[in-house]
Amino acid sequence: MAKRGKNYQESVKLIDKNEVYTPSEAIDLALKTAKAKFDETIELSVRLGVDPRHADQQVRGAIVLPHGTGKKVRVLVFAKGDKIKEAQEAGADYVGAEEYMEKIQKENWFDFDVVVATPDMMGTVGRLGRVLGPKGLMPNPKSGTVTFDVAKAISEIKAGKVEYRVDKTSIIHVPIGKKSFGNEKLADNYNVLMEAIVKAKPAAAKGQYVKSVTLSSTMGPGVKINTGKVLG
């Protein structure tokens, strides 16, 4: 196992491994342990008591964070006709159809962060499922990325809309902002996202729903949050 750097080792000393913290305490510690020279991302990781192998226990949705993520999001839109102009005027970074499908397939091009598609383009986009799916880039109606209202979808994404989705290990990983946001903005984003995840509990989920909640900076250690007080 690779030896951790000096900053990481110093950061670990600030956290009691046997302690669980309130959300506000965890945010404060995540900021204190973000010692890198760049503006580190603060990420939320939530382990849920669901079995993602079952369709009725999937947890997936999207929410607009009050203060965004601090990241410039590049949007690729699959559309045709009047929707091309609508997407361009709304601020899409790339808009097209078959030409982008071929660029992805032949050139392994992935200079985008989110894919939006109009419903009539899903036949084309569906052929990219094997490459977009594993990267979490496949458009989906549940996250609002399959829609004829491309202008609304793009504006929400640019404003800080994030998708949360349980992975095969039953964990949701979502960024809630940057170190430069400070405590208050990160707390606002955390609460909005955590409330959405709690509300998204599937009816088929039995037992404890929120198993563990952890906050961490890009280069820092994880800070455990008390699962009995996940909403701060």
From TrEMBL:
Signal peptide: none annotated. Keywords: Repressor, Ribonucleoprotein, Ribosomal protein, RNA-binding, rRNA-binding, Translation regulation, tRNA-binding. It comes from the Bacteria. Protein L1 is also a translational repressor protein, it controls the translation of the L11 operon by binding to its mRNA. Belongs to the universal ribosomal protein uL1 family. PANTHER family: 54S RIBOSOMAL PROTEIN L1, MITOCHONDRIAL, LARGE RIBOSOMAL SUBUNIT PROTEIN UL1M. This is Large ribosomal subunit protein uL1. It comes from Clostridium aestuarii.
